[in-house]
Amino acid sequence: MLSYGLWFSPYSRSDRNGPNPLGLLLTVILAPIAATIIQLAISRTREFSADAGSAKITGNPRALARALQRLDATARQIPLNANPAFEPLLITNAFSGQFMSNLFSSHPSTEARVQALLRLEEEGIRERGLGIGY
């Protein structure tokens, strides 16, 4: 990773200017944080895709939305006192309420997932009204 930091740091081939130590330090510190944020954003996108696929298979996005709401309500009633590294294995975001939870969570908020499922239901109703299968 350090070698990649050298590619993007201001570096000149002349003997007078060496690599910028501040730029190198910032790259070493910020690159893993940026990689984590991107990885978690991809995970949240996959959650939305999984919800959409489930809605298409079952044909009932509203029932899936209600199930997510029940899971979320149960998770709020019985808080999980576990290692946050365990969160990607869960269905809902059990560790919400922490600082910048949206950016560093592996799951989108339940409200956002429910809204996406209800939008899918509306689109399905419009498509069925036009004679297009759901």
Give keywords:
134 residues; mainly alpha; 4 helices; disordered C terminus
Structural features, described:
The chain has 134 residues and is mostly helical. The chain has a domain at 39-129. The protein is built from 4 helices and no strands. It is elongated, with a radius of gyration of 22 Å. It starts with a helix and ends in a 5-residue tail after the last helix.
Q: Short summary of the structure?
A:
The protein is mainly α and 134 residues long. The chain has 4 helices and no strands.
Share in β-strands: under 5%
Note the main sheet: none
Low-confidence stretches: 130-134
Q: Tell me the helix content.
A: 55-70%
Number of helices: 4
Q: Could you give the distance between the termini?
A: 47 Å
Which shape, going by the Cα principal axes?
A: elongated
Order of helices and strands: HHHH
What is the typical, i.e. mean, pLDDT?
A: 77
Protein topology:
Blueprint: H1 2-8, H2 21-58, H3 61-77, H4 110-129
Helix pairs in contact: 1-2, 2-4, 3-4
